[in-house]
Amino acid sequence: MAFFFRNELKFWVYTESGGEVNFNREVSLEVHDAVKPIGVLFEQEEMYNSITKNNFPGTIREIYKSTDKTFMIYTKGISEVLTREINRDEPDGQRELEKL
Q: Which pLDDT does position 89 carry in this prediction?
């Protein structure tokens, strides 16, 4: 089994044995051009939405496990430059973001 957090390009693999769940390994993706999430201080939590409104970071979408391989679907994210050009208040802008 594998667990991951939103916007982390890594996941943690666990094995189940004898009714126990044990940590096996951490797997980090090396996606050099992925968009990183913007961190927001706890003191600024009220401004979180305005600080991150143009931040669409890379993220793992799905993980599939076969008997000997793990397959992952992820996105690299959308650059802040591009998201600033799209008007998300308009339906066309929302559709454009969905396509990206």
A: 84
